Amino acid sequence: MSEKKYQVAIIGGGITGATVACLLAEKGISVALVDAGDPSAEWPQESYDLRVSALTLASINVFKSLGVWDEIVQLGEQPIEKMYVWDHFGSGELAIDSAEAGEMQMGAVVENRITVLALWKKLQLLKSCDVFKLTQLMSFETNEDGVSIQLSKNTQVNAQLLVGADGSNSKIRQLSGIEHYGWSYQQKALVAIIKPEKLHQNTAWQRFLPEGPLALLPLRDGLISIVWTSSVETTEGYLALSDSDFCRELVEASEQQLGKLELVSQRGAFPLALQFSSQYCQQRMVLIGDAIHTIHPLAGQGANLGLKDATVLADVVLKAHIAKRDIASEQVLRRYERQRKGDNLLMMGIMDGFKRLFAADQSLIKLTRSSGMGLINQSALLKNQICKYAMGV
């Protein structure tokens, strides 16, 4: 059995896990990054990942600091310069332009596989990081001195700190017995890549419909990525339609903002839920990203929350390392938890509140909602604040 010692072992090589690995390994921390797939694998040309993220300027700055943003741009990113939101009820609308806030863009839409590939390319250049592809976590044991981690392929690694970046169904969280709370929204989000008749104008479009929001995000090559939230039954019905019938429904739902629409990918769907853990860490183990929080996608903040977790965790670990303290001490891990828990809970509460506000069917609430959007749209100050919030600054 092969066995090697590291300072940090990270399970999950997606955006959050790979970012933590980069932030630590480039500072000389020895890192083992383990992923059940092969994030460095090539993909067919003219194909698109249904999983995309609307990255804020704050998240983009993290990637710039790591030196991977140029690679992401080369592989294919799409700036978001404007945002247009409107309600199915009344005349409520909100138009925001990043130029009015003194910025060239408020963020960018990037396929998840592009972001991950850029990060993995960086990791393969860092001597302090070993990557384990197509490798699964089997079990782990912690003690006062470290963590013994059993992987597939008859491999074992030892580390001072174990990081769970293994998603909403985190095996590390389950093996640790950490309780997870939340509820299902009884909704599914339908995702697909669409070719619009009209230019997307570097604009993120979102219409609030009775069953949930429809987001049309600008994507590379003049395409758009849609995230269409509806009840489970309605979404299943959309998935069963022919391509032409589905596009006809989509054109109607978007009120022809981008003209005729053509499907250029498969359609996929995933269930929506709010989930959170009250406990972020245990002895020599810590959770980040979707392993501790999942939120409604109506504002596209899931990946950005995970990146905030990644940067804060890396910061407290590096500070402990520089001070020659135990990087996995309870004091260090609790500092990360204190810094992130409040922000994560606030964002989850805001997104849940927005979801319920725009799903409300009472006439008075709908009227107030529509009027409120109109009033905000007339205030340059409020729109600039919303724009800065969307940028993550």
Automatic annotation (TrEMBL):
Name the NCBIfam families for this protein.
Ubi-OHases (TIGR01988)
**InterPro entries xref list:** FAD-bd, FAD/NAD-bd_sf, Ubi_Hdrlase_CS, UbiH/COQ6, UbiH/COQ6_monooxygenase
Assigned GO CC terms = ubiquinone biosynthesis complex
**Tree of life domain:** Bacteria
State the organism of origin. Answer: Cycloclasticus zancles 78-ME
UniProt record, GO biological process: ubiquinone biosynthetic process
The protein's name is: 2-polyprenyl-6-methoxyphenol hydroxylase-related FAD-dependent oxidoreductase
Complex formation: Component of the Ubi complex metabolon, which regroups five ubiquinone biosynthesis proteins (UbiE, UbiF, UbiG, UbiH and UbiI) and two accessory factors (UbiK and the lipid-binding protein UbiJ).
Q: Report the cofactors.
A: FAD
Pathway given for this chain reads: Cofactor biosynthesis; ubiquinone biosynthesis
Q: Taxonomic lineage per UniProt? A: Bacteria, Pseudomonadati, Pseudomonadota, Gammaproteobacteria, Thiotrichales
Cite the Pfam families for this sequence: FAD_binding_3
Q: Which residues form the FAD-binding domain?
A: 5-341
Q: Which UniProt keywords apply?
A: FAD, Flavoprotein, Monooxygenase, Oxidoreductase
Q: Name one GO molecular function term.
A: oxidoreductase activity, acting on paired donors, with incorporation or reduction of molecular oxygen
Family under the similarity heading:
Belongs to the UbiH/COQ6 family.
| SUPFAM superfamilies assigned to the protein according to its UniProt record, in alphabetical order | FAD/NAD(P)-binding domain (SSF51905)
